[in-house]
Structure formats: structure tokens, C-alpha cells
Design a protein that fits this description.
Low-confidence stretches: 1-11, 81-86
Order of helices and strands: EEEHEEEEEEEEEEEEEEEEE
Radius of gyration: 24 Å
Strand content: over 45%
Distance between the termini: 31 Å
Mean pLDDT: 90
Oligomer: single chain
Strand order of the largest sheet: 1-2-3-4-5-6-7-8-9-12-13-14-16-17-19-20
């Protein structure tokens, strides 16, 4: 028997695991739960992990899991109990997917099943994506479709309702009737992108998207108060919404250690909102193990035609909201990240510690809301 006959072709399996945690804390004075006034105090602890199992050079299995623990003072006020940021909810989501990468051409295609559940909704969906690159990888075209199908009823975690989705959540004093005869919301997000290398150091990115939503787009526990009627009502928005975002970005390798990323995005929707976003990221590589990530974002938005502040709507209006997310405002977000890339072996099983990134961001909005975000990302790999 020759030496070559002892060889058996083996699959090379790689495992890439990324774990992360973030803490988000905000405060403001325009809660939509109480009609556009009142506390917006909110904290969110977000835990997550992504696992990519590369079976061979063509096949990758994807698993992602997320857990949000949310404490909100404004949610207390659904029942007019203004205690503190103590009303807690939990959001759980999981994604399962598969990606195929062609060996014969720079082409890939992938699909994911998306699942999420919270006390007042259940969501199922899917994500399909694909990309194709030129032979020299100087040009790349990508397209993706994300769809969500949401059931917005409450009761899944309640013994009172036998753990079954039963009803929409209305403010306590408005539960004398069913304000909506639907409880589902569907969302479809189609996005196409083109990246083109202009030179060895500069690349251009162009993105175009179309987002369509239908069903119950109102939040059933948001109050509205009219100036010409003493009684409050539930927020009411149209049953469909078309949104179109358009983005253009430029990435430049200023030097071997410094990259400048600039991205502009324009947004338009049927509610009458138009918005402009300018984002700047500027990673600076200190050496092969340490990188700084300064970033800044400016966002300017016009108001929806359906928005008015507290006590300024008329009962003759067909649609109405006092949710300041749909108001006119300017926001600013800035922060700094620090990345550590040791590429260090862990034990005798070929595990490598690849990445630890810590990032802090401060967010400010002109309508009296601000927030602090602290996040950690940890990555290990086995090959």
C-alpha cells in the first residue's frame, strides 16, 4: 500500500462565536403612553450570541440568540401607576440560517428564519440575501429581503388569560371597548447595494431600499388628548406605510493605520417624514492588536403630518399621534470604541480568542431626550 493511499479527504469545520452585552439608559419628558408628556425613563440590558458553523468552504450554518430585559417607567403609566422604571418586560429572539458560498464564482446566497416574542407580540419572519462580486472583487452587488409577520396581542405570559394571546393592551381607562378590529402587522424590507472600488484606497457604496408595512401600525397603549374634547382616545395611524431610504457612502484608507468612513442617508415615507443622516466612522489602528473607533452621527427629521403635541389634536382629525419619534427633531450621537485583537490560542483544542471591543455612545435629541449606551463584544474562533 502506497503512502498516498492512506490519505482520506476531511471536512475542515470552523466555529466562530461572538457574544455581546449592551446597556442602554434613556430619559426624557415626552412619553407617548401619557399623550406626549411624562417620563420616558427606560433601561435595557441586551444579551446576545452569534454562532457560525462553517462545515466546509461552501456551507455555513448560522444561529443567533438575543435577550432584552426592559425596565420602563412609562409602561407603568398604562395603568396610571407612576412608580419608577420598574415595569419589566423581556424580549427574546432567535435566528436560524444557512449560507452557501460558491467555489466556482464569487457568489453567495443565504436564508434565515426569524423568531421573536414579548408579552405583547409574537413575530415570525425570514431573511433572504445574496451577493455577487467581480472576479477581482473590485465590485460587489448585494440584495436582501427581510419580512416580519407580527401578532400584537397580549396574554402569552399571563395566567389570567391561560397563557394565550387574547387582547391588545389599551390604557386602563380606555378598555371599555375594542379600538381596533385587527391585531396583525406585516413588514417587508427590500434592499439592494452596490460597492465599487474607485482606487486601491477608496471605495463607493450605494444603497437603495423599499420598506412596506401593513396592518396595525398604531401602538394600542399610546394615549391621545384633544383640545376640543375632554375624553382621551387611543393613537390612530393609517393601516399602511411606504418608506424609501437611499444611502451613499465613501470609504477611504487615509493611511495604513487610518480609515475614514462617511455615509449619507436620505429617508422618505408616506406619513410625511423626510430625514437626513450623516455618519462618520474613523477607525485608527494603533498596532496589530489595538484599534480605536471614534464615531459620530447627525440626524435631522421633519414631523409626520399626523403628529401633534399633547392636547393639540382635534377630534375631527382622522389620524393622530403624540409619539415624539414621529415629531420634528435633530439628534446627535457620538462615542468611542476600543478594540483588542490578541489572536491568542486558548487551551489545546485550537480555540482562539480573536476580539474584545468596548464601546460607549452618548445620544442627544432636541426634543428633550438623551441616552447612554455601553456595549461589549467578545469573539472566539475554532479552526
Amino acid at each position: 500500500m502506497s503512502q498516498d493511499s492512506l490519505f482520506r479527504k476531511r471536512r475542515l469545520t470552523n466555529i466562530d462565536i461572538e457574544a455581546f452585552y449592551s446597556f442602554y439608559a434613556q430619559d426624557g419628558n415626552h412619553s407617548a403612553v401619557t399623550g406626549g408628556i411624562g417620563t420616558e425613563e427606560l433601561t435595557v440590558h441586551n444579551f446576545g450570541a452569534n454562532l457560525n458553523l462553517t462545515i466546509d468552504t461552501s456551507h455555513t450554518v448560522i444561529f443567533e440568540a438575543y435577550l432584552d430585559v426592559i425596565s420602563s417607567a412609562s409602561v407603568d403609566n398604562i395603568d396610571f401607576v407612576s412608580s419608577s422604571a420598574s415595569e419589566q418586560d423581556t424580549h427574546v429572539s432567535a435566528h436560524f440560517g444557512y449560507q452557501f458560498t460558491s467555489k466556482k464564482s464569487p457568489f453567495l446566497i443565504g436564508v434565515k428564519y426569524l423568531f421573536a416574542v414579548e408579552s405583547d407580540y409574537l413575530s415570525n419572519g425570514f431573511n433572504i440575501w445574496s451577493s455577487f462580486s467581480s472576479k477581482d472583487f473590485s465590485r460587489n452587488f448585494s440584495v436582501s429581503l427581510v419580512c416580519f409577520f407580527d401578532d400584537l396581542r397580549w396574554g402569552r405570559f399571563s395566567k389570567e388569560y391561560d397563557h394565550k394571546p387574547t387582547t391588545l393592551i389599551y390604557p386602563v381607562e380606555l378598555r371599555y371597548k375594542q379600538w381596533f378590529d385587527i391585531y396583525r402587522k406585516n413588514s417587508y424590507n427590500l434592499k439592494a447595494g452596490l460597492r465599487q472600488d474607485l482606487t486601491k484606497r477608496v471605495s463607493l457604496q450605494i444603497d437603495l431600499g423599499i420598506i412596506y408595512q401593513s396592518g396595525l401600525l398604531s401602538t394600542s397603549f399610546h394615549r391621545i388628548f384633544f383640545y376640543d374634547n375632554d375624553s382621551g382616545v387611543v393613537e390612530n395611524l393609517p393601516r399602511q406605510r411606504l418608506q424609501i431610504p437611499l444611502g451613499i457612502g465613501l470609504n477611504s484608507f487615509v493611511s495604513n493605520r487610518w480609515i475614514l468612513k462617511a455615509y449619507y442617508r436620505y429617508f422618505w415615507d408616506e406619513f410625511g417624514i423626510s430625514a437626513h443622516t450623516l455618519t462618520l466612522d474613523s477607525p485608527v489602528k494603533i498596532n496589530h492588536r489595538y484599534t480605536l473607533y471614534p464615531f459620530a452621527r447627525v440626524y435631522i427629521q421633519s414631523a409626520s403630518r399626523y403628529f401633534k403635541p399633547f392636547n393639540q389634536h382635534s377630534y375631527l382629525d382622522e389620524f393622530y399621534t403624540s409619539d415624539y419619534d414621529l415629531s420634528a427633531f435633530t439628534s446627535f450621537k457620538t462615542g468611542l470604541g476600543f478594540g483588542f485583537y490578541p489572536d491568542k490560542r486558548m487551551g489545546k483544542r485550537n480555540w482562539s480568542f480573536n476580539q474584545l471591543v468596548i464601546r460607549y455612545a452618548y445620544y442627544w435629541r432636541s426634543n428633550m431626550l438623551d441616552a447612554h449606551i455601553l456595549s461589549f463584544v467578545f469573539n472566539i474562533w475554532k479552526g
